[in-house]
Amino acid sequence: MSLKFIALALPLLAIAPAQADELVKNGLPCVEEICLGDGIAELSKLKWNTSQNPIKLGNKSVATAARQLNASDLQSLRQTFPDPGEAGPYIYDKQFDGGALPVLSRVPAACETNELFGTYISTIGIPTRVGISLTSFPAAPGKQAWTVTTIAREYPTATSNQEKSVITTELNKRYYKFGAGTQATADPKPGQGRFIASGMNRFGFALTLFRGNDEEKRLKQHPACSAK
Q1: Within a domain: residue 89?
Q2: Distance CA 141, CA 153 (A)
Q3: Alpha-carbon span 119 to 136, nearest angstrom
């Protein structure tokens, strides 16, 4: 087992039972820096990688914030977000970063299921991909808020079966109540979180927030959507 891997794995494995309990907030699973169900306030505490337009210009990357949307782009965007405002470029690219959060907080409503992704480097140097959605929940279907709905991590330095086994064992302990290491977890209800192991090609995991099969129906109850 390489020294580099040990340096990566030790912080993960050094969590005592009392500390492991802290990886749950309001009944939802977390990583060290962020939890499912968190909002703009918690997202703003992290340093996000600058989001890049997926299409390069002259073989050069362009920040999403600099993207210019044309009339056709805006018309398409407004089918889901009636008033995207300054957040339009981020929403169109389905990406966010630290600069996006203030303008996203001013977007009043989404009328369809949505998700934007951003990436930060964890406290132990692991790239962490986070998905946020403007969504609502059954208790308040007419109210919407940006919410962390996906957290995904990969461990590219874990290449041997032994290394993967060490991490898998710890992840199963951490997230057992959310389905890690068992197939017996009942189907989630809206607002509950679940653990998903990554496939064979990419070793890692994801935490996902179940938003309910009726999410779009709830979203359309927002005044900005019901008036369309």
Answers
A1: no
A2: 31
A3: 23
Tally the domains of the chain. Answer: 1
Q: Which region among 121-135, 154-168, 179-193, 198-212 has the lowest average model confidence (pLDDT)?
A: 179-193
Residue 61 lies in a domain: no
Amino acid identity at 74:
L
Nearest to 31 by CA among 194, 152, 165, 135: 152
Specify the 3-state DSSP secondary structure of 145.
strand
- 172 in a structural domain: yes
User: pLDDT: is 201 or 191 the higher one?
Assistant: 191
Q: CB under 8 Å to 74, separation ≥6 — which residues?
A: 84, 88
From first CA to last CA, the distance across the chain in angstroms is: 59
Tokens 């041997």 belong to which residue?
160
Tokens of 71: 């009339």
d(CA 76, CA 23) in angstroms, rounded, equals 39
Question: In this structure, are residues 33 and 123 in contact, taking their beta carbons and an 8 Å threshold?
Answer: yes
Q: Could you tell me if residue 62 is inside a domain?
A: no
Looking at residue 111, its pLDDT comes to: 96
Rounded to 5°, angle at Cα 209 from 204 and 25 = 90
pTM, two decimals, is 0.88
Q: Report residue 61 as tokens.
A: 């990357």
Name the residue range of residue 36's domain: 3-52+107-226
Residue 157 has pLDDT above 90, yes or no: no
